[in-house]
Specification:
The chain has 269 residues and is an alpha/beta fold. It has 11 helices and 10 strands.
């Protein structure tokens, strides 16, 4: 596989605020350092990405420079150049835009987060292989809520209810060089990520709100509206993996992934 076919993995690793509940519960300097099966969550994600043939290098955005030494293994990887690091800004979308500017403009980029504790090479490789095959500028990973429920029952997730199914985000995005403008557009939706109908209104317009409220908006229609507004052709990648829809937003999420990985025999929690 040539370098041009591979992706730089951009990992957002900063907390949304200074009083993150998961970090407080875990007693760590930031959420990304919360231990899962004896290993900081961020190291689990980095190890997963290192095992992916489609990933050529990794760039972290965050944690803040003052907190990096609090995780000895992460500090060592940054100091030895195993992973790159740039300072985060005051929101995920602004951080992503800032970090993207540090990556060659012609380079394909995959974006994920340091709290994607159940991420596996299989999930990443599937997502990137499908993304590469689609004729679009950017892709968004989603999982059907029913797929997630098949393993995790009624685990609390933000669900977008559309005509062709109920979907959850997966914190996986892929960008060709022509797709990076989507990150700027993301900033408009960021504050409304937990209020789907308001996000539809702000991002897609009032006509889409009515379609959404009456259950007539499909996933492809929603992404087509985004494409029209941004000039970026966006396609979904529907992932068949329940684990893809689990990230660690809350303390109960941390307890869930600790339980899942302990049962799978990863290590003692």
């Amino acid at each position: 596989m040539s370098d041009n076919d591979q992706f730089v993995a951009l990992v957002l690793a900063a907390d949304r605020g200074s009083q993150d509940a998961v970090a407080r519960f875990a007693g760590t300097a930031c959420k990304a350092y919360a231990p899962i099966c004896g290993q900081p969550m961020i190291i689990r994600v980095l190890d997963t990405l290192n095992d992916c043939h489609n990933i050529k290098s990794i760039l972290l955005c965050g944690p803040p420079q003052s907190l990096v030494p609090a995780c000895e293994e992460l500090n060592q990887r940054i100091n030895t150049g195993q992973v790159g690091w740039v300072e985060n800004l005051d929101s995920p979308a602004r951080s992503a835009a800032h970090a993207m500017n540090q990556i060659d403009a012609l380079q394909q980029v995959m974006l994920t987060t340091a709290d994607h504790a159940l991420l596996t090479p299989e999930i990443v490789e599937y997502f990137l292989q499908v993304s590469r095959s689609l004729e679009c500028d950017a892709t968004v990973g989603v999982v059907r809520y029913e797929t997630l429920q098949s393993r995790y029952g009624n685990a609390r997730r933000t669900v977008i209810r559309l005509r062709d199914g109920n979907f959850c985000g997966c914190n996986l995005f892929a960008f060709k060089a022509s797709g990076r403008a989507l990150v700027e557009f993301w900033q408009q939706a960021e504050a409304l990520r937990k209020q789907p109908w308001k996000m539809v209104n702000r991002v897609l317009g009032w006509q889409a709100v009515w379609l959404y409220l009456f259950g007539r908006l499909t996933l492809d229609q929603a992404l087509q509206r985004i494409s029209e507004k941004t000039g970026v052709r966006v396609c979904p990648v529907i992932l068949p993996f329940p684990d893809a829809g689990i990230d660690v937003d809350k303390v109960e999420d941390l307890q869930l992934v600790r339980s899942v990985l302990a049962q799978s025999g990863s290590a003692s929690a």
